[in-house]
Design brief:
9 strands; single chain; alpha/beta; 5-stranded mixed β-sheet
Length: 205
Amino acid sequence: MKTDKIYRTLCILSMMVIIWIITLSSANAQTNLTTAVDFTVTDVHGETYNLFSILDSGKYVIIDFFFTTCPPCIQSVPILNQSFIDYGCNTGEVFYISMDAGDTDAEVLQYEYDYGGLLPSVSGVDGGGDAVNSAYGIGAYPTVVLIAPDYSIVEQDIYPVTDITTALPNAGLNMASCDTGSTCLLYTSDAADDLLCVDLGGRRI
């Protein structure tokens, strides 16, 4: 009897260890895909993007999966903004896009306004973001994915998001000038006492 109890206890402990390992693996890679799934989406400003067309042009793609009431997503906005600016504001080797889950265009526009997001943003409900979140199996936020021009997913989850400063150079990507125009866009945020004026390249002016 004692042997049976010991055996059952060991089995239970083994199962707990296996579950723990699986949980850790899932936490470290929020998408299990290794090859990109194509999508066509429309951002909150009416621009349409097709993933494979962008990749076929030779660019890498950063997808920022988020939702508007997610505190860590909000905290990641300035980090992603800086990376977006450092790598050419979508005119360099990297194309950035934010993919919302569960929110409308109006809610994502308010999110952009409140927190000063510079990346093209696709709402989950109106822009097609929900389908992309589902296709990539995203279950935790924020999740930041890096996709190479050959459709391979180079980074399944850049986390913490501050690791983007090393992930892009490690992929062989180079910074680029952010010079796409001089039209002033005004943003405000809860963290700022005044309006932030940036050009179309995301630079303060």
